[in-house]
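## Example record

The block below lists the input lines for one assembly entry, exactly as stored, with component labels intact.
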Amino acid sequence: MPDFPPEEYAARVARAQTAMAAAGMDALLLMTEVEVRYFTGFRTAFWQSSTRPWFLIVPREGEPVAVIPGIGEALMRATWVRDVRVWSSPHPDDDGVSLLRDALAPYRVVGMPMGRASALRMAMADFRRLEIEPVNASALVWNLRYVKSPAEIEAVAAICAVGSRAFARAGALFSEGMALNEAFRAFRIALLEEGAEEVPYVVGGAGQGGYEDVISPPDATPLRAGDVLMLDTGASLRGYFCDFDRNFAITHASEAAKQAYRTLWKATEAGLTAARPGRTCAEVYAAMAGVLGDADGGIGRLGHGLGTELTEEPSLAAFETRVLEPGMVLTLEPSIGVGPGRMMVTEENIVVTEDGPRLLTQRAAPELPII
Amino acid sequence: MPDFPPEEYAARVARAQTAMAAAGMDALLLMTEVEVRYFTGFRTAFWQSSTRPWFLIVPREGEPVAVIPGIGEALMRATWVRDVRVWSSPHPDDDGVSLLRDALAPYRVVGMPMGRASALRMAMADFRRLEIEPVNASALVWNLRYVKSPAEIEAVAAICAVGSRAFARAGALFSEGMALNEAFRAFRIALLEEGAEEVPYVVGGAGQGGYEDVISPPDATPLRAGDVLMLDTGASLRGYFCDFDRNFAITHASEAAKQAYRTLWKATEAGLTAARPGRTCAEVYAAMAGVLGDADGGIGRLGHGLGTELTEEPSLAAFETRVLEPGMVLTLEPSIGVGPGRMMVTEENIVVTEDGPRLLTQRAAPELPII
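Predicted C-alpha cells for the full assembly:
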C-alpha cells in the first residue's frame, strides 16, 4: 500500500535516530504532510483539509508513534507504523492535545522543525497547551532529506519522464489563438494521460518575447504570434515531484527572444558543468549567474532541492554554502529579464552522482522551439 | 486579473475592520494561502512551495499591507492592494522578518488566527524574532468567512456544476476490470474537460459492498462486479471548491449495499429538511445522525463549511452550536458502517437561504446507481 517497502522508511528513521543521538534530541515532533509521509509512507490528499491536525513522534530509540484523527487510522495502519493512537476529530475542546502531550511525556528534549520552509500545522493555541519548549530540528531533518535514496531518485526520474513526454506533445497541444487557460487545461490533461498521478502545480505565462511573471494563474487571453509561452509543472507520482518548465514561441520568435533563450540554455549548461560532488550550492549558483550577468530574472535563486516537495532545501543561491553530495536531486532554474516587466525562465531537474549530474528531464532544445 | 472585482475584497476588509473595532484589535496578521487570498484576491499555485513566507496585515483603519517575496510583486500589484512591500527571498538570515516587524510596529493589539484549522505558515524561529504577543483572531476571521457573498456562492455553484457534469459521465468513464487508479485518472480528466481549473483533491475507494476508508490514494486493483466505487472530489474554479462524492455499483449491488445507500440518502434528506436559518449545526447533525443511528461511519462529523477551502468551519457535529444563516455554504456528508472495516459515504453541497437550503450539487440518485 505505501509507496516504498517498509525498509525504506525504517532506514530513514534509523538515520534520524543517529542524528538525534548526536544532537542530543530525545524525540522529533513532526506535523506537516511531507514530514509525516517521509518517515511513515502515509500519503493522502486529505491534508488539504485544514480542519484536523496530525502528529508523528520519532523517538531516539524505538519505533515512531502516530497520533492522528480516527479518519486516518486504516490508512496509517497500512504503513509500517505499529503504534497508532487516534482520537475522534474534530473535537470540541481537545483536538489531540491530551493524547499528544501524553505521547510526548517520556521525552525531555523534543526537536521540531522551526527554520526555513517549516510551519506549525496546528492551532497555536493548542501548541501552547502542550507546554513544550522544542529545539530547532530543521537542520537535522533537512540533512536527512537532502540526499535521496535510489528508490526516491527512481520516483523523481519517473515523474520527470512523464513531464518530458507531455512537453514533447506541445506542438499538438498549443497553437495560435488558443486561450492561455485552455493551454493550461490541455497540458494538465496531457500530464495525466502520460502517467502523472496528481498535477498539483501548473503555472506559466505568455507574452510577446517574454512573460510578466511566473506564478500567475492563466486568464483567457489568446496566444498570439510572437508570444513566448512558458509552462512550469510540478506533477507527482507516488508522492514525488518533478519541477520543470519549457518555453515555446508561437509561430515565430523575435531575435531578442531567441537570444535570451540561448543565454538561459548556456546558463543551464554552466550549472550542469558545476553541479559535482564537493562543489557548494553557491558555486553552482555563481556558474549560472556568471552567464546571466546583470540580466538575472529576479526569482531570488537559480534552482533548489526537489523530491517529496515541489521545492526543497537547499537553494542555489549566493548565500548557500551547502556542499553537493551524490544523491542530491536539484533543479537548475536560471531566469532572465527580457525588457521592462518581461522575463524568461527555464528549468531542468538533475541528480548529483559521483560522475557529475545526471539529467532527469529531457534536456530543453538549445534553440527556442517554434510551434 | 483577480477573481472578483475590488469591491468584493474591500467589503471583506470593511467587515473585518468593523469586527476588529468591536474586538479591540488594531491589526490582523495573516499568512496562509486562503486568508491572504480572501482579503486580496492574490491567487497562485506558488503557495505549494514551502520555501517562502507571505504576509498580509489588515489594519483596523486604512488599507491592507502586503509584505511578500519579490517573486510575487507583479501578481500582488494586479490586485486591489496598493501597499506592497517586498524583499528578495529566500534570504540567508532575514526572510521578511525585519520588513514585517516594521510593518507591524504601529499596532498595539495584533490578532492572528490561532484556533481550529489555523497554522503558522512561517518558521517558528522567525515568528519569535517578531516579538509580538498576538491575540486569537480565529473567531473573528471565521465569522467573516462563514457567510458567503453572492459572488462567492456563484463561484461554488459553478464548480459544483462542473463536478455534477463529470459524475454524470460515470457510466462511460468507469467499468468492471478497470484499475482503480485509472478510474481516478479518468475522473480527473473528466473534471478538467467539464471546466475545472484545478483538481487538487480526488479521493475514494472501491470494495465489495463498501470501501475500507475514504482518504487513501488509489492502487491498481481492478474494479470487480459487486464493488461499490466512491469518488470524492474537491475541484476548484476561481479559487472556490466543490466537495462532494458519488457512489456507483459495478454491474450489480448486494441488498445490503442498496439498503446502506438508501439510509445515507434519507440521512441527507433529513439534513436538507433541517438546514434552515436559525437552526444550529448541532441540530442539523442530530437530524442526520437520527437516521444513521448506531451505524455512523466514524468520520467525526456529518458535514462542514465549504468555499475558499475544501473544508471550512463550522462542523456539522454534536458540539457545534453555531446558528445557520443565509449565505452559509455547507456540505451534508453522512457516512455509514456496512460491516467490519467497510463503510459508505455520500455528500451534497448546499447554500442556506431564507427559504431553506438550495442544492448546489445535482442531487444523488435515491437508489444506488449501477453501472
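Chain B has two domains: 6-146, 150-359. Chain B is about 35% helix and 20% strand.
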